[in-house]
Amino acid sequence: MGKGDKKTRRGKIVMGSYGKKRPGKRPKVKAEDKKEEAV
User: Fold this and answer.
1) Residue 17 to residues 27, 28, 38, Cα–Cα distance (Å)
2) DSSP assignment of 1-39, as one string?
3) Where is this region: Disordered (predicted)?
């Protein structure tokens, strides 16, 4: 287990993949959308 293991965080960083252990970037929510949710 380590850099070559797809199931570990370190392995995903080395391979450049994402998953449950290493989520990717979340889409940004605009300020306008936040105001509508609060109403």
Assistant:
1) 17, 20, 35
2) --TT-TTSHHHHHHHT--SSSS--PPPPPPHHHHHHHH-
3) 1-39
Residue whose token pair is 């990717």? 24
**C-alpha span between 27 and 37 (Å, rounded):** 16
3-state SS, residue 28:
coil
Extract the tokens encoding 30: 């605009």
Nearest to 15 by CA among 2, 24, 6: 6
Locate 10 and state its tokens: 């370190």
**Residue located via tokens 């609060």:** 38
